[in-house]
Amino acid sequence: MPRPEVSEHADLAGLSTFRLPARAAQLVVLDQLEQLPELPIRAGAPGDRLILGGGSNTVFLDDWPGQVVLNRLRGVATETLSPDRVRVRVAAGESWHRLVRWCLDQKLYGLENLILIPGLVGAAPMQNIGAYGVELADVLESVTVWDWSRQASAEIPAAECGLAYRDSRFKSSERGRFLITAVAFRLSRTFRPVLGYRSLADALAERPLSDPRPRQLAATIMRLRRRRLPDPARLANAGSFFKNPVVSPDQARSLLCEHPDLPHWRLADGRVKLAAGWMIEQLGWRGHRIGDAGVHEHHALVLVNHGRASAGQLAELIGVLRQSVRTAFGVVLEPEPQLIGWSENEKRG
Ligand code: FAD
Ligand code: EPU
């Protein structure tokens, strides 16, 4: 078995789509499962190790003092469960977008609304990725992990992953405990389009597709995404920079009384999710810059690095936006990507 590639004092800027300058004390490329028990350990503390996939949801505000493990495990396997149901088991280092396209080619359905989300498959359960009315939880069967604390593999059924809006046990309560090695999906041979998301429904109404085919639906979603979200290859960013805040029914009622146009979604438990992008835009921040750290011109929920942004400029911009939204709307914006080097004080806002 080839030993994992290891480098010291490694440059991380090109490994994160926000592209802030940063370094890791050590970088290890993991491309075979058998390498896991043999991985070099630098300091031994679990918090010393950070897993990176495509780096599209990780922003380096500081260097990483320990080891970064770059997940490059590859492979896809399918298993027919019934005439309609197929299990697709995918190694964590596969590209998410390529997986969705491959499923469309195989006529396996369930992932099409999640097309064009950057990053790798292993990160998808971390924040229960979601877009256009579908989230990973709708199709996830199980997650296979390497448990650093036990130095052993385990399979975690979807129901035990703690999946919620942009959250999971991997992202919150058990951060750092597991390396996700593979993800299993339950897909269908029958196409059951999910068309309810507002802007998708509007786009389909513009170009009526009463019975859209899978590829037409995927193409429509790609068009919508390209219209509003910057391509990280051209303009560095990490997608939505804040979660959409979820508030109590009472708080929502008074906010909506004052701001009847505030886009919102009622959740099954009665709470209400508010569109953070709308709030930031209303306060006039679209296009605003602090040095090279800016608010995207077409979508106020997306922060961008115009080229040479520093961690200090980005931290200042985050602070200004959170303070402004808190003062005007009384809600605290929580960053969505993993911010490396962001202090506990700043997290509380
Ligand atoms: P990384 O940034 O590499 O990792 C993210 C987190 O997961 C880190 O905490 C990392 O330590 C951890 N991690 C990664 N891999 C593993 C592993 N194998 N085991 C354990 N931990 C791991 N997200 C959405 O949900 N919906 C969207 O519509 C969406 N649109 C986006 C659009 C743009 C332009 C961009 C830049 C981002 C968007 N995102 C979206 C966010 C991001 O693409 C997703 O969160 C994606 O799943 C991140 O994948 P990654 O491999 O790049 O993750
Ligand atoms: N809006 C504005 N101004 C803006 C941005 C948005 O008024 O500058 C309004 C829109 O007009 C719309 C509402 O806010 O009425 C919601 O906007 P959009 O449909 O663009 O979705 P979002 O809430 O901003 C979320 C996800 C995205 C996901 C889209 C589509 C979060 C944090 N973000 O964005 O995910 O692609 O819905 O489902 O939930 C990501 O996680 O990185 C990401 C891009």
Q: Which descriptors apply to this entry?
A:
349 residues; binds flavin-adenine dinucleotide; 7 helices; 20 strands; Uridine Diphospho-n-acetylenolpyruvylglucosamine Reductase, domain 2; Uridine Diphospho-n-acetylenolpyruvylglucosamine Reductase, domain 1; Uridine Diphospho-n-acetylenolpyruvylglucosamine Reductase, domain 3; 5-stranded antiparallel β-sheet; 4-stranded mixed β-sheet; alpha+beta; binds uridine-diphosphate-2(N-acetylglucosaminyl) butyric acid; globular
Which topology of the largest domain does CATH recognise?
Answer: Uridine Diphospho-n-acetylenolpyruvylglucosamine Reductase, domain 3
What best-fitting shape do the alpha-carbon axes yield? globular
Strand content: 25-35%
| Ligand types | flavin-adenine dinucleotide, uridine-diphosphate-2(N-acetylglucosaminyl) butyric acid
Would you write up a description of this structure?
- It is globular, with a radius of gyration of 20 Å.
- The chain has seven helices and 20 strands.
- Helix content is 21%, strand content 28%.
- The protein has helices at 96-105, 198-206, 214-228, 249-258, 276-282, 311-329, 344-348, and strands at 5-11, 23-30, 49-52, 58-60, 64-71, 76-80, 85-91, 130-131, 134-135, 140-147, 152-157, 178-188, 236-240, 246-247, 264-266, 272-274, 289-290, 293-295, 302-305, 338-340.
- It folds into three domains: 5-71, 2-Layer Sandwich (Uridine Diphospho-n-acetylenolpyruvylglucosamine Reductase, domain 2), CATH 3.30.43; 76-188, Uridine Diphospho-n-acetylenolpyruvylglucosamine Reductase, domain 3, CATH 3.30.465; 236-348, Uridine Diphospho-n-acetylenolpyruvylglucosamine Reductase, domain 1.
- The strands form six sheets. A five-stranded antiparallel β-sheet has the order 6-7-12-10-11, with no helix packed on it.
- By secondary structure, it is α+β, with helices and mostly antiparallel strands.
- β18 and β19 (302-305) form a beta hairpin.
- Flavin-adenine dinucleotide is lined by residues 17, 50-58, 71, 92, 117-120, 122-124, 126-127, 129-131, 178-180, 229, 232, 237-239, 338.
- The site of uridine-diphosphate-2(N-acetylglucosaminyl) butyric acid (EPU) has 20 residues, from β13 and α5.
